[in-house]
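User: Round two. Same drill as before: sequence, then structure, for each protein.

Assistant: Same drill it is. First protein:
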Amino acid sequence: MNEGFKRELCRSLGATGAQELETIQSLWSGYGKIARYGLEGATAESVVVKLVRAPTERDHPRGWNSDFSHRRKIRSYEVETAWYEAFAGQCDSFCRVPACHASAAGDGELMLVLEDLDAAGYSQRRSRASLADMKHCLSWLASFHARFLGVEAEGLWPKGTYWHLETRPDELEALDDLPLKDAAERIDKELDACQFKTIVHGDAKLANFCFDDAAQKVAAVDFQYVGGGCGMKDVAYFIGSCLNDTECERMDSTLLDWYFGELRTALERCGSRVDGKQVVREWRALYAVAWTDFHRFLKGWSPGHWKVHSYSERLSREVVERLGQ
C-alpha cells in the first residue's frame, strides 16, 4: 500500500497506524489483492482492504487478456467504488454488506477500505452448500432485489453481471454452438425487456457469500459487476454455482419457490407498491432465459467447464427453440 493510501485509511478510521496482517486473496488476473489490516488506536481492530493495481503484463488464466477485457476490469473496480459510495448504505440486515470506511484512487491505483466481516461475526465460508445454506443466500438475494426494485443503476453497470453480451464479444465469437450463437441477441433483448428491473449483484456465486457463525444469516461481497437487470440473472447464476446437473434437475423448483416466497415477503417488508405476484410471474418465466444467457457466455469462454452440463444444455435448447419460433 502506498503511503498516501495508508494515511487515508488511518484518517478515515481515526487510527494512529495500520499494518498488513495477511493477504486474503489475489485479484483476478493479477490486478491487485485483498488484505486484512490491523489498526492501532481505532475502535475497529481490523479492516479488509481491496487494493487494485493494473499489472504491467496481463496474464489471464484462460488467455482472455485483450485491451477490451482490461478496460472492462478497470471499469469494474470503478463501479464497485460507486456502489459502496452511493448504494451500499441502503442495504439492511436482510441483505447485509460490509460497510465502506474509505475509498481512494490515484496514479493508476485504487483502494477500498471495508468492514472486516469476519470480525463482525460472518467468518464462515462454503465450498459446498447444503439446502439450508442455499436458502439463506437466496433469501439475501430476494431482499436485495426487493430493496432495489425500480431503482436506477446510476453510476453502475447499465446491465449488471460480468457475462452480459455487450461486454463479451470475444467469447461470443469463439462460441461454436451456432443455434445458441444466433439466438444470443434475442436472449439478451428478452431479459432486457422485462418490466420489473432491479439492481443485480452480478457475481452472486457461493464463494461471494459469508455465513455467520450460527449459519443462520449471510452477507455478500464483491460488487464489481453490480448493475441493472432482471433478478433471475443472480438466481440462475447462484444455483449454477452450487449444484451439478442432477442436483439442478432435482432441486430447481424447490429453490425457486423459496426465492419467490422470500421476494414477496421482502417486497412487503420494504413497503413496495409493486404487485409481488406480477413480479413473480414475469421473473419465473425468465429463469431459463437467464440461465441460457450465462450458458452462452460459458460455452464461448470455457467450453469444457463443469457447468456446461446436461441441465444447462436442456434449458438452453428449450429457450433457443422457443425464441426461434
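Second protein:
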Amino acid sequence: MITSKSPYILLGLCFTSCAVGPDFKLPDSVVPATWGFGNSQPVAATPANPADLSQWWHRFNDAKLNSLVEQALDANLDVKIAVARLRQARAQRQGASASFWPWLNSSGGESQSAVGGSGPAAGSSSSYHGSLSAAWELDLFGGNRRNLESASARQAAVAADLDATRLSLAAEVALTYCQLRSIQDQLTVAHRNLSTQQHSSEITHDRRSAGFASDLDVVNADALVASTKAQIPSLETSARHSTHAIAVLLGRPPADLLGMFTKVAPVPTASATIPTGIPSDLLRRRPDIRSAEASAHAATANIGVAVADLFPKFTLNGSINQQSAKLSDWLSPSARSSSFGPSFNWALFQGGAIQANIRVQQALRDQSLLAYRKSVLIALQEVEDAMVAGTNEQKRCASLIEAVAANRRAVELSTQLYTAGQTDFINVLNAQRSLLQSESELTLSHLAMATDLIALYKALGGGW
C-alpha cells in the first residue's frame, strides 16, 4: 500500500541502498620485485618519482631536440585529437550524472476544432492548453550510480590515452631527429671516404701512366669510388624524408623545416644511468597500463548497470496542467489540474534479454581484465628488452671504435706501401672498404644507443 509517506521512504532508500553488481577489484599481476638485468647494468634500480623522468628528452642535451619535442606536444594533430576525445569523455560523464537530477518538461499550444456541419451553422472552437511536468527516478538499486562510475572510469581511460599519445609523440620526434642526425653522420662518412678513395684513384692513374700499375688497379679504384658515390643520393633522400616526418609531427607542411637542419650535428647522446625504479612503479606510471585499468573498471561497472535492469525502477512524478476555451481564462484556478505520485516500471519478462546482456557485460569485463594483465607483461618486457639492447650496444660501440681506429691505420699504411711499390693495390682496396664499413656501422651504433635509450624512457612511462 502506497501512503503519503511513501515518497519519503523511497527517497531514503535511494541514498542508503547499495548498488547492485560487483565492485571493481584490480586483478593480481605477476610483477617481479626486481628487474631481470640485475645490478651489473648501468641503471639506478631504485624507486623513481615520475618527476625523475619528466621531460626526459632534455637528458640528451640537444637544444634543437628540446624545441622540436615541445613544439610537437603543442601542435601535433594526434595530440589535439586526443584532447578532443577527452573533452568528449568529460561531456559524456556529465551526461551520466544528469540522471541524478529531476527532469522538468513543459508544453503548450492552441488547438482548433470544427463544429456543426456545412453552411451558416458551421464554425470552429478554440482551446488553449499548457502543462509543466517533472519526474525524478530514485536510484534504489544503483543502476545510475554504476553508469556514472563507468563514465568516470572511461574518462580516466581517455585521459591516460592522452598521456600515452604525448609519450609516443615525444619518443617519435626524438627517434626521427636522431635518425636524421645519424643519416647526416653517414653522409659525412661517405664524403670523407669518397675523398680518400678518389685520392687513391688518382694515385693508380698516375702509377699506370708511369708503368707501375695495371689497368685492373685503375678499374678497381674507379669502381670503389663509383660505389661510394652511389650511396650518397639514397642517404640524401632518407635525410629529406626524416625532415618531412619531423615537420608533420609538428603539425606543419613537410617542406617547412628544410632550412632548419642544414648545419650537420652528431647523434645526441645521454647518460645511460636512468632511474628505472622497481617494476611495480610501472603500474602507476605507464599510461597504457592506467588506461587498461580504467577500462576494466568501466567494464565492471557496466555489469551493475545491466543487473539493475532486473529490478523495478521507481519514479516520483508530478504535473500541472492548464486548459481553457478562452485565452483570458487560461490562468484561472478553474482551468488548472495537477497530479503527483510515485510510479514504478518493472520489466518482468523480456525473453531473457536482460540476463543475456548481463552475461555480455561479464564477458567484456573478463576481456578487459585479461587485457590489463597483458599490458603489464608487455610493459615489463619492453623495459627488459630496452635495457638488454642498450647495454649490449654500448659494448658493440666500444669494439667498433677500436675497429675504426685500426682500419684508419690500415688505410694509411697500405696507401704508403702501395705508393712505394711494396704492396698490391688490392690491400689498399680492402682497407678502404673495411674503413667505410666500420665507420658506417659506428654511426649506426650511435643511433642504436640513442634509440635504445628512447625506447627505455618510453617503456618506463616518461613523466606522465
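The longest strand covers residues 123-138.

User: Perfect.
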